[in-house]
Structures are given as structure tokens and as C-alpha cells.
Amino acid sequence: MEASLCTYPSSKTHCSQTLNLTGISTKPLFRPKTSLPITHKTARIPSIYCAISRTKKEETVETVKKELENCFLLAGICYKGLTVQQFQDLRKSLPESVKLVVAKNTLVGKAIVGTPWEALKPCMKGMNAWLFVHTEEIPGALKPYRDFQKEKKLDSNDFTGAVFEGKFYGPSDFKALETMPTRAEIYAKLLGSLQSPASALVSTLQAPARDLVMVLKAYVQKLEEGGGQ
Question: Does the pLDDT value for residue 133 go beyond 70?
């Protein structure tokens, strides 16, 4: 590129001078600094959340396993639509021998693998809260929820299933669980059989195996308390 630069006349010289710029590089004298690539540190928050979530899941599995210790019955309850206040009211209505735990089906399923409680798998659908019963008085343990269900008109929030003595009970089978004889009734039946003719004792012995076992257990306990008398 060729260009001419004219100067203004000075007081000493009256001629115009021409500056030839031919051959001079037209590249900019100053090259703007190029922006260096910004390297961002690897975000750690997602991995922390994952670690917390994994730890929480492991804690839940351990909680379920602990609740299964000395547990006589485990039942699922559909809690979809229940409010926080209703949960609080329900927990207050339960006896100390009954524990209500909210846990995902997958975590409960993981906790019961390889145990008799694995029979509970058929009801592991939807949103379940889990009722851990730590007493042999099954009807008395289930009654508070039935009363709560009727009082709050929660017909859709029914039992989804339960396992008792290794057997699965579906929603339509709960009547058998809720009408089981209480310990007091078993004692009365046992004493009545021992004091009645042999035919009554035979009738007792022909009762379902579970009832017979409970009767015998009650009798043995009575003997132990009475010093074998």
C-alpha cells in the first residue's frame, strides 16, 4: 500500500515534504492481548450431593433392618395424599410397640432380602409407609390405624399388604389379622380347656397350629410364673 503524508509548512521551511510509506508494514503496531481460556474448577457440589444421598439411603436401610429386630408383623400403608399434620397425628395415636417409618420401596426391599420378610414384595408398589409391630398383640397394634383411617375418612389410604410369621397377607386378608385372639383371650381359652371335660381340650388341640402354639406358650409362661405349680 502506498500513501502520502503532507506536513504543514513551518516557519523555517516553506516547502512541503512528502513522506513515502511504501513498503512499510500496515500491520498494527500493537496487537491486542488475546483472552486466555478460563479454566473452571471442576464442580464438586453434585458429587457431594450424591455422597449425602448415598449415605442417607444406607442409613434408611439400616433403620429398616433395626426395626425388623423383634418385629412380629410388618405392614405397608398407602400414604399418598396424607399431609404432614396427618402423619404427626397418626404417629401420636400409635402405641410404643408400633413404629411408623416412611421409606422407599427399593430401600425396604434391599433390607429384607434373604429374610422371611421378603414375602412382602407383592405390595411394594406406589407410595408406602411401613408399620413395624413389635408386639404379639396384632389386633391391638393395627386398630389405631383403622380408627385413624375411619376418623379422617381415608378410604384410599388402606393397608397394601403385610407379612406375619413369614406369610403374606393382602389387603383383603387383614380381617384375619385384626380378629386374632388377644393374649387375655388365649389365657381364658387355656384355663377353660384345662378345667373342662376332655372333649373341650381336644377341640382346643384341633385349633389352627398358630392358636395352639400361643395357647401352649401361654400355659408354659403361667407355669413358670407359678413356680411350676
Answer: yes
> Does the pLDDT at position 52 exceed 60?
no
Cα distance between residue 68 and residue 6, in whole Å: 100
The pTM assigned to this predicted structure is 0.62
CB 122 within 8 A of CB 163: no
Rounded CA-CA distance 45/55 in Å is 15
Burial of 207 (0-12, 13-18, 19+ CB in 10 A): middle
Give the Cα separation of 52 and 6 in Å (integer).
76
- Strand 98-102 and strand 128-133: the pairing is antiparallel
Which of 104-118, 139-153, 183-197 has the least mean pLDDT?
A: 183-197
Beta bridge partners of 92: none
Which residues touch 177 (CB under 8 Å, ≥6 apart)?
73, 138, 139, 142, 162, 164, 169
The amino acid present at 204, given as its one-letter code, is T
State the Cα–Cα distance between residues 33 and 226, nearest whole angstrom: 99
Plot region of 73 (φ>0 → left; ψ -120 to 50 → alpha; else → beta): beta
* C-alpha torsion sign, points 73, 115, 125, 103: positive
